[in-house]
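Much of our argument rests on the idea that a fold can be written as discrete symbols. This step matters because it turns folding into a mapping between discrete strings. The record that follows shows the chain in one-letter code together with its fold in token form.
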Amino acid sequence: MRKDPTAVTDYSHIELTEEEAQEALRQARAAKAAKLREQEYWNKVRSERKYPRPNPDELFNIIKRVAFNAIPGYVFDEHNESVLRRLCAYFSGSAEECEKYGISLKKGISLNGPTGCGKTTIMQLFMNNPFQSYALIPSRKVGYDFAEQGFKAIESYSRNFMRTENSYGHEEFGYCFDDLGGTKEERKRFGDGILPMEEVLMNRYDKGKFFQTHITTNLTADQIEEIYGARVRSRMREMFNLIQFDIAAPDRR
């Protein structure tokens, strides 16, 4: 007959000498003490783990270093510094500094400006930030993915995603949709007149994911309404802080 592996063996009939009993008790206590020390250590590590929280000026200097190292010849000048200062106020999470610029930490960022002024590059520089990290996705890719995957793609971009904790302690990441309305592929209407980016923005609006949603675009508000409709334009006012390059900003391409 096969023995039940879950059955507890009774050793009560085994007699121990006083010395053996004391040694068994000592070993059990030593094992428990080691386990408690390990638990205390990991509790301390978790409670003391510190993540960098740079203020706006410190974040500005970090962004400058990253830009100089990653993008040879990158230029900081009067055309982009005011934009960068505003983004540093926002992405550092400084409510005091944001108030100076009329920026809400409850909303995302709509970075607007003429073609080639550096919108995409700047939002790439800020992807990992102290306030809310995100991934940058070309808006046209949303259209391509919808063509291949259907509404599964819409649902995917409508929610945040999880990945390994980054240097700022973030595990949940939002999205920046780059070049909204900038290509025919992105503006292509599918069956039943569906515009993929319209669906994504409306879904993220319904889910309340404002500060986890950003866009770049070279469209005016009127052009956005012409492509996506008045409802989307109205929702975007609620969703985004508008940060805009000067119309005279040079083409850096």
About this structure: The chain has a mean pLDDT of 89. The first strand starts at residue 108 and ends at 112.
